[in-house]
Write a structure and sequence with these properties.
Length: 56
């Protein structure tokens, strides 16, 4: 993990470390959304989260 990503994780509104890492990497990678079965965990994410069923 880069220093920039780690700093973003620590500054994230998401309290769960692993979820904050996913958010930070998603922002850095310029993805459109995060695919997850736990959308509620990403309520505070700057990247929208979608359930896999929403993708089809």
């Amino acid at each position: 993990m880069s220093r920039t990503i780690f700093k973003s994780v620590l500054e994230s509104d998401i309290r769960d470390f692993e979820d904050a890492v996913i958010e930070a990497v998603s922002i850095k990678s310029d993805v459109e959304f995060i695919a997850t079965r736990n959308v509620k965990d990403f309520k505070m994410s700057k990247v929208p989260a979608k359930e896999p069923a929403q993708l089809f």
